[in-house]
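User: Predict the structure for this protein chain, please.
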Amino acid sequence: MPRGIPNAKPAQAKNNPVHAPARELHTADLAVGQQPAIVLPDDGPIEREQVIVALDKQPADDYLQALKFAEEPITIRIERSSEKFAPHSVDCWVNGVGAEVLMRGKWIQCGYLPIGHVVTTKRKYVEVLARSKHDTVQTNVQKHEESEDNVVDRHTSMKTPFSVIRDDNPRGAQWLTRLLAEG
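Assistant: Here is the predicted structure, written as structure tokens:
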């Protein structure tokens, strides 16, 4: 029996379940896809991978579901940078439409997302942030008996790290993990 409360009954966990808040999903905790090193031979043509891949026409149902998924609201917080004069916002556009933010129950087109504040936006703008990456490149020379190869090592990292505070879609975490893993 709880102390200090007369005639109180002990609480039972099955009658009063405790709901823990969902854990934030931070992009720094997810793996970012890395490109393989490029080996430039001493002589001869450079091997290049095909960058543009033609896809067959996507079925209409899948396309419509993808559009609907992209319009879902998602609550994020863009993490502050440790730079001395770090920006206070990030420009974000999809097909000529600036980032939309949910304010007072209405979608407001801002064209940017604020840094360091919790904001609800549409998933398509979060996808732009997740795909926004930059590569750090370092070239190493590997000497062989009669030739040398230049090896270009690439390291990909997030340009704008953020945390997902709330995503009501159960596929949301898997979607973000897949986006970041793409090279």
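Residues 20 and 108 are 31 Å apart (CA to CA).
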